[in-house]
Prior knowledge:
With 215 residues, the protein is α+β, with helices and mostly antiparallel strands. The protein has 6 helices and 9 strands. It has a 7-stranded antiparallel sheet with strand order 1-9-8-4-5-6-7.
Amino acid sequence: MNITTAVGAAIIGLLANTTTASALDNSTKIPNAQTGKYFENEFGRTLPPIGYVQFCATKQDECKRASGKIGRLTMTPERWNLLYNVNTYVNGKISPVSDQDLYGEAERWTYPTDAGDCEDYVLLKKRFLQGLGFAADALLITVVLDENGDGHAVLSVTTEGGDFVLDNRRNDVLRWNETNYKFLKRQSQRDPLQWVALEKDETVSTGFIATRTQR
């Protein structure tokens, strides 16, 4: 993958200082194809989180409909290494703090500088990866329920080898069905303003994602 933009070059510079032997080892371990590697079920449109709607109202250029053909990323060792390092870098750079504690609001989606909650991690990872040449339609904000039944946001990466998850709770990049999360809804690949249900009966509030600090 060629890094052709100034943004991409700047991000590579940031990541250069965080690349470790572990990251390099991880770059050669692209998981093999397996049953259940993709989100196979979508159940039509659903409401997006209110925080995302407000975010797009102020940053319309970053919520544009995909143009041209959409598809799944072809993974390479370089791309896998970038995914791992972006996930690790953002997880280490941003401290987990709730919107209520940070802004005095129940929900605010924004790009974090040094602190934020789960959806802020997702926004920053998506921005970095797009700056590195990853297609926006392959980077989908996703709402899940965690092991405790709490709402949480992660970044889904759609690839030919499966759907993978970047999560602020872990540095490892896991396949979606290895996370022990219940996947509720995510952005449409064609139009990021539209969201699709991944469960027939959506059991999480459409208004807010997290009720506590997510780490």
